[in-house]
Each structure stands twice: as structure tokens, then as C-alpha cells.
Design goal:
Length: 306
């Protein structure tokens, strides 16, 4: 059985022009600063949001030019530039503004806000951990509007690091799929299986290895579904589905999985109808991941098949 994602994963939405040419044309990027907007992200990766939109402040509030640690996020449809910075958040008292975490409440963001916040979170998290050269330990400084860091002694540049990970729905080719619970998760919270790609490994090979390591199943017919940035702190989730044999016994080989089971499409549909782990899910046997995760979209897309 083959299927596709029904919707674009929430953090994969595109709502603004990334305007990557401006990262190297710094004069042009800085020239847009007087009319630019600024997204503030705090140390907990929270932002201010109002009516489904991230609150964007006048960039000039941060000075006459972009601060050294500001990151260029792109350009809105009206041409205005958007930058991001680490900053404490100060919600105005006279406006309906909330402090929200993209990871837990990203489903309320509109397309533009989802893209801007995901990009800012990923870049700022990288800068937080890349302040020194991995080669000789020298302090590095931001370049290319926040899209790189340079060692001023050697001239060596470093670029934002992405950690690719696969996430896979294992099914039997008919109406059953595997869901598993990690050891640190609460009771009843189940999802599909995921793991980081190793050096010298393809995505497809990683799927086969991770499923075998985590639950002991041998899977075949690995097919790509889609991808989603997961900037917590800097991952890229690459989604797949694969076929497994329900007659093969589970074995939890790496200690990450507490339990796993084959669930029917009807059981999964029922769990989806009851909400997700954030809403409690009522008395459902299953609590499933929230909509911000590509796991939810993969599960929903499989469950929607006839």
C-alpha cells in the first residue's frame, strides 16, 4: 500500500521569501533596516503572538543598524525585511498578546509566522552553540546576515548545522500500523519511530537500521513521504513509510522504547478523533502526537486511506 501526505507539515509551510541573495549583499540587506521588522525570540524559544501571527516590532527599536547577532529571516510580500534576535519578551499590557512556544502551540501560527519562527529558532539555536571554532577553539563572529560564522584568525567559515533524522510509519500493507512509546513518555502516548542518520548512511538505510534497533522488525519497501524542519535544536525530520511483518516479534534492543504494538486503522482513527496528547485524549487507549509534528500528519494520512 502506498500513500501520500494529505497536507504540508505545519513547520514546512512557506509564507515569506527567504531572499537568500541578500545574505551576501549585506549593503542591500542593511539598506532595508529602517523599514524592517524584528522578531524577538527568548531563551526558551518562545515568541509573542497575536491572532495567529507572530508579533513583529519595528526594527529601529533595536538601533540604527542590525545588531551583530541579528539574523536575516527573509522578505515579506510587501517588500519589508524581517530579522530575528534573541531577546526577553515584554508583552504589551493593552493588547491581546500571548507568549507561545512553537513546539507546543505551532498549529495556531499562520504560514508566514510558522516559517519565520522556525527559521529564527533554528538559526539562533545554532549561533548559541557555535560561538567558538570547532577546529582551534577561537571565537567566531557572525557573517552573511547571520547565516554563517567566521574565524577572524584563519578565515574559516562555519554554516548552520542541520541534524537529519528519519521518522517512519511501519504498516503491514493493509490496515495495521506500528505505534511505540518511548521510555520517558507518559502512559498511552504513542507515535511512530524515528532516529538520527549516521555518517555514511542514506535515509533509507537509516530507516531499516533504526526500526531494527528500536523494535526488532525487519522492514521493506521504504518510501519517502515528506520532510519538516524541527528546530529543537536543529533537526530536519525526513518522513517515510515501510512495510513490516506482524508475525515478527518485537525486541527492544536499544532501550529507547518501552512498548510497541500493532494498531488497526479503526483504532487509530478513533484516537485521532479524540484529540492529541495535549488535550488528554479522553479515555482512548492511545494518545497521539500533536499537529505540529510531521508524525501527526503521517499518521493522519495513513489513517485516511480506505
Amino acid at each position: 500500500m502506498s500513500f501520500r501526505l494529505r497536507n504540508v507539515p505545519l513547520l514546512s509551510r512557506v509564507g515569506a521569501d527567504r531572499a537568500d541573495a541578500l545574505r551576501t549583499d549585506i549593503d542591500a540587506a542593511v539598506a532595508g533596516w529602517p523599514d524592517a521588522l524584528l522578531l524577538r525570540v527568548d531563551r526558551r524559544n518562545q515568541v509573542l503572538i497575536s491572532g495567529g501571527q507572530a508579533v513583529l516590532n519595528d526594527a529601529r527599536d533595536a538601533g540604527d543598524a542590525p545588531p551583530q547577532d541579528a539574523v536575516f529571516l527573509g522578505r515579506l510580500a510587501d517588500g519589508r525585511h524581517v530579522w530575528g534576535i534573541r531577546s526577553d519578551l515584554q508583552p504589551p499590557e493593552d493588547a491581546p498578546v500571548e507568549v507561545l512556544d512553537l513546539r507546543r502551540t505551532g498549529d495556531v501560527f499562520d504560514d508566514v509566522s510558522a516559517q519565520l519562527v522556525a527559521t529564527a529558532t533554528a538559526l539562533l539555536n545554532w549561533h548559541d552553540s557555535a560561538r567558538f571554532s570547532p577546529v582551534d577553539g577561537s571565537p567566531t563572529t557572525p557573517v552573511k546576515a547571520g547565516w554563517g560564522r567566521i574565524n577572524p584568525v584563519t578565515g574559516r567559515e562555519e554554516f548552520p548545522r542541520i541534524d537529519p533524522a528519519v521518522i517512519c510509519l511501519v504498516h503491514d500493507g493493509h490496515d495495521r500500523a506500528v505505534l511505540a512509546r518511548q521510555t520517558l513518555w507518559p502512559e498511552r502516548l504513542f507515535s511512530i519511530l524515528a532516529g538520527f542518520v549516521e555518517a555514511g548512511e542514506s535515509f533509507e538505510s537509516c530507516v531499516v537500521r533504526e526500526i531494527a534497533e528500536e523494535i526488532g522488525l525487519t522492514v521493506t519497501d521504504v518510501e519517502y513521504l515528506g520532510s519538516q524542519p524541527w528546530p529543537f535544536p536543529r533537526s530536519l525530520m525526513v518522513g517515510f513509510h515501510a512495510v513490516g511483518d506482524p508475525e515478527q516479534e518485537f525486541s527492544f534492543n536499544d532501550g529507547e522504547i518501552a512498548e510497541a504494538g500493532w494498531f488497526t486503522r479503526a483504532e487509530i482513527r478513533d484516537a485521532l478523533d479524540r484529540g492529541d496528547w495535549g488535550s488528554g485524549g479522553g479515555d482512548s487507549r492511545l494518545l497521539l502526537p500533536g499537529s505540529i509534528s510531521i508524525a501527526r500528519e503521517i499518521i493522519e494520512s495513513w489513517a485516511a486511506q480506505d
